[in-house]
Automatic annotation (TrEMBL):
GO terms for molecular function: guanyl-nucleotide exchange factor activity; translation initiation factor activity. It is found in: Cytoplasm, Cytosol. Its main location: cytoplasm. It comes from Cryptotermes secundus. Component of the translation initiation factor 2B (eIF2B) complex which is a heterodecamer of two sets of five different subunits: alpha, beta, gamma, delta and epsilon. Subunits alpha, beta and delta comprise a regulatory subcomplex and subunits epsilon and gamma comprise a catalytic subcomplex. Within the complex, the hexameric regulatory complex resides at the center, with the two heterodimeric catalytic subcomplexes bound on opposite sides. The keyword Cell inner membrane does not apply. InterPro entries: eIF2B_alpha/beta/delta (IPR051501), elF-2B_alpha_N (IPR042528), IF-2B-related (IPR000649), IF_2B-like_C (IPR042529), NagB/RpiA_transferase-like (IPR037171). This is Translation initiation factor eIF2B subunit alpha. Acts as a component of the translation initiation factor 2B (eIF2B) complex, which catalyzes the exchange of GDP for GTP on eukaryotic initiation factor 2 (eIF2) gamma subunit. Its guanine nucleotide exchange factor activity is repressed when bound to eIF2 complex phosphorylated on the alpha subunit, thereby limiting the amount of methionyl-initiator methionine tRNA available to the ribosome and consequently global translation is repressed. Keywords: Cytoplasm, Initiation factor, Protein biosynthesis.
Length: 220
């Protein structure tokens, strides 16, 4: 009996989350998929389980979704849960702790967006002009927070070719009655001197605190 989920099953779980839940990032979907893989895995050794989890990561990297988001999300998740190897004597106990830590990690991530958005919204002041790139869930959440605090501000959002996700971001901002103008990606230099600040989501964040943008949906 195969101890792991098949590649196609993993891709279906991962893609299904992203298709059904538009507010979920690729990184978050990848972590949820790894939790599903962990729950269904029937490995009998830590080495075999590690191999199956890595195979799941590779399967998700080979889909059409942002690779950096998948890679960074999975790396953090695996690093967090595999600490269980140091604390247990039996494989069964190890796997149980890994599942618990994985669920705890996911819960913390789900809470993080709101916390980051609330903190970021404090930087938006009355009368400011803000430049943003493409579509970012956290940036959108931060601007909603600022608007609900009765702050008046204007937004410029890049078109973000080739998927033009900036148009979707503009529509979402306008639904919150936030004035928004879509600009061409090449017009950033022209607009820069007219804005007070730039806000951008990150598809992946490295240990030094730096981030990597993706020209499309951002993993935030």
């Amino acid at each position: 009996m195969d101890s792991k989920m098949k590649k196609k099953e993993i891709e279906e779980v991962f893609g299904g989350i992203l298709e059904k839940e538009q507010d979920v990032s690729a990184g978050m979907a990848a972590i949820r998929t790894l939790l599903t893989v962990l729950e269904h895995d029937t490995s009998e050794t830590v080495q075999e389980l590690d191999s199956n989890l890595q195979a799941a990561v590779d399967a998700m990297k080979n889909t059409d979704y942002p690779v950096t988001a998948v890679a960074s999300g999975c790396e953090l998740f695996l690093r967090f849960i595999t600490l269980a190897k140091l604390d247990t004597k039996t494989f069964g106990e190890c796997k149980s702790i890994m599942l618990h830590r994985g669920q705890l990690f996911l819960k913390k991530l789900m809470e993080a967006r709101g916390k980051v958005a609330k903190l970021a919204s404090s930087f938006i002041v009355d009368g400011s002009r803000v430049l943003i790139h493409s579509k970012s869930r956290v940036v959108l959440h931060a601007m909603k927070e600022a608007a609900r605090a009765n702050k008046r501000f204007e937004v410029y959002v890049t078109m973000s070719s080739p998927d033009n996700s900036g148009l979707e971001m503009c529509r979402l901002l306008e639904e919150e009655n936030i004035p928004c103008t879509v600009i061409l990606d090449s017009a950033v230099g022209y607009v820069m001197e007219q804005v007070d600040m730039v806000m951008a989501g990150a598809e992946g964040v490295v240990e030094s605190g730096g981030g990597q943008l993706y020209n499309g949906y951002l993993c935030t």
